[in-house]
Amino acid sequence: MIQLCPIADLTPGAVIRIARPDVPVPLALVKVGERVFCIDDTCSHETASLSDGWLDGHEIECPLHESRFDLRTGKPDCPPARRPIRTHVVQVVDGMVCVDATSLALAAETAR
Amino acid sequence: MTTIAVVGTGLAGVRAAEALRADGYDGRLVLVGEEAAQPYDRPPLSKQVLLGKCESQDIALTDDDLRAVLDAEWLLGTRATALDPASRALTLADGRSLYADGVVIATGARARTLPGMPRLPGVHTLRTLDDAHRLREDLSRPGRVVVVGGGFIGAEVASSARALGHEVTIVEYEQKPLLRQLGPDAAGILGRLHTDHGVALVTGVGVTGLVGEDGVRAVELSDGRLLPADVVVVGVGAVPNTEWLTGSGVACDNGVLTDERCRTTVLGVVAAGDVAAYRCRGGRLRIEHWTNARDMPVIAAGSLLATLRGQDPMAQPVHDPLPYVWSDQYGVQLQIAGRPGVDDVLELVSGSFDDSFAAVYRRDGEISGVLAVDSPREFGRLRRDLRSAWSVR
Ligand SMILES: Cc1cc2nc3c(=O)[nH]c(=O)nc-3n(C[C@H](O)[C@H](O)[C@H](O)COP(=O)(O)OP(=O)(O)OC[C@H]3O[C@@H](n4cnc5c(N)ncnc54)[C@H](O)[C@@H]3O)c2cc1C
Question: How much is the CA Rg of chain A, to the nearest whole Å?
Fold first, then answer.
């Protein structure tokens, strides 16, 4: 497990970008209601940072070309993105949001 | 069985086919495309493709999954040459006829050329993948590049040619590039992008001729100057592909005229994308931007299916999006929303005009447009404000 950030840092409706040497791909963390979602931060179409995008319920909109991804499934609603964005399972351990390292390693491989 | 023919296999054509199936259309679907290539996306042509950063397969608009969903007959490499309004039969360039109950016109636009100028080797326009490959080939040798036209495509080509190490000059007829689209302040800022990156900008002059015999040697300007050139790229706008509709009853005037629901003057014929001049807020818009070509076919498909199913098309949604375009030049990302007028006032919201920034246009104090350079998050926020203003107007 990789610790990402304290749960207290997350406010509902706000997106946090996590880009650190110990995290293989940049991530976006989002709190919707009481649930925390973790997705790859880079749009599956082109290099845009989804954490710069607009959040609307469970959907996040790519800031460049407006494909919207469902935070729960990673699926895009319309082109240019065709491929889903990878979602990661997070757990809150002792007040820290943590993500499974193997799921991330896989993401790093497919991102290449 | 019902047949729907989609003419044009660019973004708008593919999206129309996708929308028809998503809307439950299970009849025969035929796509007719002049280009022999599988459908592809154009924005990367002037950017990644010229720079050799991506290949044809990276810009495909369809994949096996989508093609399975579309379940269409693909007639690629052949043009529609006529449409008979009574029988709704299409004539194809190879002599075949195709009867259709519904037709989607998505024939897009082609690059405008300089009137009366010789087609010399070394002179290019950029609209298709073939164009991009030919230009890339010419840019693989050292040489001086002259870009005629300082619009988005001209600017992107200049930026790519510069990145490939060429000496580049842009010739722009107006006093500043993008002056009419973005007004003097933004035009000044974007003009500086060129000069900051070592691209020469020659403004306020026209091109009167091309000099050369077995290849272009120079560009002749209206003030008598000769600009030496080994490669010339003409980026002076696009012309809608409507000639094939002569005699079809489909009314055209700088594009296929449609109503707010993408319907043309012929029943059962709709149009979408760069080719369509749609009615909007008491006026007409023909928008040559990617997002419009993505979204308009969905409306067109909805109203066509309503017509074919005998439902009331007026109950269908209208096409009235907030115009949006992006451009990538010199490693900088531009985003523009709305339709700012030349006299609208540009007001900085964040950042600095010398670097990255987000700004709004105002007309009588009201927001009329958003312009951002490398500020996607701020752009998104301001675009929301503009969208609210746009929807009440
Ligand atoms: C180099 C370049 C860069 C661009 N960059 C950007 C950008 O950064 N951002 C942005 O917002 N927009 C950009 N655009 C604009 C965007 O690509 C267009 O708005 C979009 O391609 C329009 O799609 P369309 O399907 O309506 O038309 P088109 O893409 O023109 O497709 C129409 C198709 O119909 C075919 N056709 C024409 N006549 C016939 C006929 N009679 N029978 C059969 N087929 C026919 C054509 O061959 C063509 O394949 C760019 C365009 C170009 C050329």
Answer: 13
Mean pLDDT of B35-47: 97
For residue B294, list chain A residues with Cβ-Cβ distance below 8 A. Answer: 78-80
User: What letters, b where the CB count within 10 A reaches 16 and e where it falls short, cover B361-371?
Assistant: beeeeebbbbb
DSSP state of B19: H
Distance CA B320, CA B260 (A): 7
Q: Nearest-CA residue of chain B relative to A60?
A: B380
How much is the CA Rg of chain B, to the nearest whole Å?
Answer: 22
Atom of ligand 1 nearest to the CA of B8: 34
* Chain A residues within 8 A of B15 when measuring between CB atoms: 79
Closest approach of B346 to chain A, Cα-based (Å): 22
Gap between the Cα atoms of B299 and B319, Å rounded: 6
In this prediction the ipTM stands at 0.89
Q: Is A105 helix (H, G, I), strand (E, B) or coil?
A: helix
> pLDDT for B56-81, tens place per residue?
899 999 999 999 999 999 999 999 99
Query: What b-and-e string marks burial along A32-67, b requiring 16 or more CB atoms within 10 Å of the CB?
Result: beeebbbbbbbbbbbebbbbbbbbeebbbbbbbbbb
Portion 267-296 of B in contact with A at CB < 8 A: 290-291, 294
According to the model, what pLDDT value does residue A105 have?
Answer: 72
The closest alpha carbon to B12, from B387, B217, B295, B254, belongs to B295
Taking the model in full, what pTM does it have?
0.96
Tell me how far apart the alpha carbons of residues A61 and A73 are, in angstroms, rounded to a whole number.
14
Peptide bond preceding A21 in cis form (omega within 30 of 0): no
The torsion region of residue B122 among left (phi > 0), alpha (psi -120 to 50) and beta comes to left
Q: Is the pLDDT of residue B251 over 90?
A: yes
* Sign, CA torsion B322/B256/B318/B29: negative
DSSP labels for B48-59? Answer: TTTTTS--GGGG
| Residue B171 β-bridge partners | B148, B202
Could you give the CA distance from residue B67 to residue B61 in angstroms, rounded to a whole number? 10
Q: Give the per-residue pLDDT at A112.
A: 43
What is the rounded CA–CA span in Å between residue B85 and residue B88?
Answer: 5
